[in-house]
Amino acid sequence: MNAATTATNTVTSGRALAGQAPGLLHEDAGEGRGQGIALIALAAALVAAPFLVYPVFVMKLLCFALFACAFNLLLGFGGLLSIGHALFFGFASYTSAHASKAWGLTPELSIAAGTLVAAALGLLVGSLAIRRQGIYLAMITLALAQMGYFVALQAPFTGGEDGIQGVPRGALLGVLDVSSDFSLYWLVAGLFMAGILCMRRIVHSPFGQVLKAIRDNEPRMVSLGYKVDRYKLLVFVLSAALSGLAGAMKALVFQFASLVDVYWTMSGEVILMTLIGGVGTILGPIVGAAVIVSAQSYLSSLGAWVVVAQGAIFVACVVLFRKGIVGTLADRLGRPL
Amino acid sequence: MSDDIILEASGLSKRFGGFDAVGGVDIKVRRGSIHALIGPNGAGKTTCFNLLTKFHQPTAGQIRFDGRDITSLAPADVALAGLVRSFQISAVFGEMSVLENVRIALQRRHRGSSFDFWRTERTLRSLDGKAAHLIEAVGLASHISRRAGELSYGRKRALEIATTLALDPKMLLLDEPMAGMGHEDIDRTAELIRTVSTDRTILMVEHNLSVVSSLSDRITVLSRGKVLAEGAYADVSTDPRVVEAYIGVPHA
Ligand SMILES: Nc1ncnc2c1ncn2[C@@H]1O[C@H](COP(=O)(O)OP(=O)(O)O)[C@@H](O)[C@H]1O
Ligand SMILES: [Mg+2]
Q1: Domain ranges of chain B
Q2: Which atom of ligand 1 is nearest to the CA of B21?
Q3: What pLDDT, on the 0 to 100 scale, is given for residue B103?
Q4: Minimum-distance CB partner of B142 among A15, A26, A225
């Protein structure tokens, strides 16, 4: 719808422009502005947040927001539904916890290790799943993720039911101590922002254009000579790696990695966050994650009823905002967010 | 006329369940010619296109293109070899602008299979000039920044041709390029096909027989999955079997 309105606005001028400077034919100057402003606001909020809110809470939120954005990169921009993303989040979490605790790696290396492991798992799962369509693809990701869960349950290095506890946060590059919540916050916020900007770039890259076209009309892309499976695999790996970045950070924030992060409910939660915020928007999953994480924390006194409350929030969002909170807002404003 | 054959299919067959949609078709297309494939609905023309471009795997038969056996290639590789198809149901990228539609094809041709997710899409603007040129050639200059999904049917077909041409293929397969077009669009598209064919080969399915007669060098008539007749328009159109297949009554 946004593209439509922007396009009609430029049609009149487009007529005169056909023979002129190519750059003027593009609408992205206007499209970028809404997102640009929102991203600056986000950066400002990140700077202010630890002075206003308990840093661990904000860091938790950022980890889940990044995870949801990474998931949305696959669903919203790649058009592929995975219901096994906990595998990447959880194993990255285990890897960075293990690297930090058992190998004594610095935090940036532990996080990098987690991200790499997630990327490798993404390559494995993606190669097996990508040739399938729709629900079959989703089922394969779920099945493989459940296998991963059983590995995590049995493997010696994950600590089984106990998980990996007492993970040291260490010192950044071996010199900058990040063991306090406040200092770790800046590392997490910085990586979060880097991850978001990275995804924005992916979406607006030549590769992103190809993804968009594949989502739009896959057979036509094949007929133009594009090997669509390779593009899908790459976006799968990128999504897995960024999910891994989120999971790896989470292990350092809570100094703990556990089975919860690889369990299928985690895959479900990230889907929920993305849908509530708005699929296919850059900022939607962040809002969705904020809603779910806040609800979980403020309603934690409700015990098992949290799940019911989450369901109610989800239903309310689906009824009130069919394209998610941010998706609906973007429609109102007439520009993508 | 040279006897240089660019595309040759022999014994081409496709069986769907127990039904032979295409049953042993032999076809030879001369380099640089416009070759028409005609026949009643359900004759197997689109299926032939699907087989030649490997969107469907033939049940039997062989395909040679430009001196090379392409029978076991993947469809994207057939396109890369220079044999590019259009679709009967108009195949544009509806969510993208007219410019972006053509540019995505230019992107493949000029940047190859680029996986550069770290670059900004502004790098693609270097292709805008070429894209605008192609768009103008099919008469869509005034629609260049419109969303392709909003175009009329005839204009979508024109956009599809521009997109296909952007790949600069050796050979084009056009499946009913003029279906749903008005008179004016038909004339322009026919002219376009003629221009394009000066340094390319074209195989097209078309129901508009006056277009077929004026454009094509050679015609193959398909009926019930088999070649019924082949030759110049004058010969084929007077062939009693063809008349029968088309009109559906015996030529008494
Ligand atoms: N994917 C398919 N599965 C089963 N039958 C098909 C398929 N595609 C085409 N057919 C059948 O093959 C025959 C030829 O169809 P088609 O090639 O589309 O004919 P044409 O393009 O000449 O009108 C038709 O009877 C059609 O129903
Ligand atoms: Mg057909």
Answers
A1: 5-94+169-247
A2: 12
A3: 95
A4: A15
Chain A residues within an 8 Å CB radius of B103: 209
ipTM of this complex prediction, to 2 decimal places: 0.86
| Alpha carbon distance B65, A9 (integer Å) | 45
CATH class of B5-94+169-247: alpha beta
- Could you give the C-alpha distances from B60 to B23, B42, B47, B65, B224, in angstroms and in order? 9, 20, 13, 17, 17
Average pLDDT over residues B141-152: 92
Contact B107/A19, CB-based, under 8 Å? no
Report how far residue A75's alpha carbon sits from residue A52's, in angstroms, rounded to the nearest whole number.
Answer: 33
Task: Output b/e per residue, A157-196; b: 16+ Cβ within 10 A.
Answer: ebbeeebbeebebbebeeeeebeebebbbbbbbebbbebb
Residue A246 CB contacts under 8 Å (≥ 6 apart), including other chains: A63, A64, A66, A67, A70, A89, A92, A195
State the CB neighbour count (10 A cutoff) for residue A122. 27
- Residue B87 Cα to ligand 2 midpoint, Å, equals 9
3-state secondary structure (DSSP) of residue B85: strand
The mean of the pLDDT values for chain A is: 84
So what CATH class is A27-333? Answer: mainly alpha
Residue carrying structure tokens 């014994």: B11
**Pocket-testing residue among B41, B46, B203, ligand 1, by greatest number of atoms within 8 A of Cβ:** B46
CA distance B170 to chain A (A): 13
Q: Kind of pairing, strands B171-175 and B201-205?
A: parallel
Contact partners, residue B183, CB within 8 Å, separation at least 6: none
- Cα–Cα distance, B145 to B134 (Å, whole number): 14
Average pLDDT over residues A55-60: 92
What CA–CA distance (Å, rounded) separates A281 from A283?
A: 6
Is the minimum CB–CB distance between A15 and chain B shorter than 8 Å? yes
Of B94, B108, B117, the CB nearest to A205: B117
Residues 6+ apart with CB under 8 A from A287: A276, A277, A278, A324, A325, A326
pLDDT averaged over every residue in chain B: 88
Please, which residues 138-197 of chain A have a Cβ atom closer than 8 Å to chain B? none
Distance CA B232, CA B6 (A): 18
Which ligand 1 atom is at minimum distance from the Cα of B48?
17
Sorted by where each begins, the domain ranges of chain A are: 27-333
Distance B239 CA to ligand 2 centre (A): 23
Tell me if chain B has a CB within 8 Å of the CB of A8. Answer: yes
Least confident among A210-214, B38-42, B185-189, B222-226: B185-189
Token pair for B135: 């768009």
Say if the Cβ atoms of B141 and A7 lie within 8 Å. no
**How many Cα atoms occupy the beta-carbon half-sphere of B234 within 13 Å?**
0
Amino acid B252: pLDDT:
39
B131-B55-A236 Cα angle (round to 5): 70
| Gap from CA of B237 to ligand 1 centroid (Å) | 24
Write the pLDDT tens digit of every residue in B153-168. 888 888 998 999 999 9
Q: List A residues 239-298 in contact with B (Cβ-Cβ < 8 A).
A: none
Neighbours of A146 (CB within 10 A): 17
Q: Please provide residue B199's backbone torsions phi and psi, each rounded to the nearest 5 degrees.
A: -125, 30
Secondary structure of residue B144 in the 3-state scheme: coil
Nearest CA to ligand 1 atom 12: B21
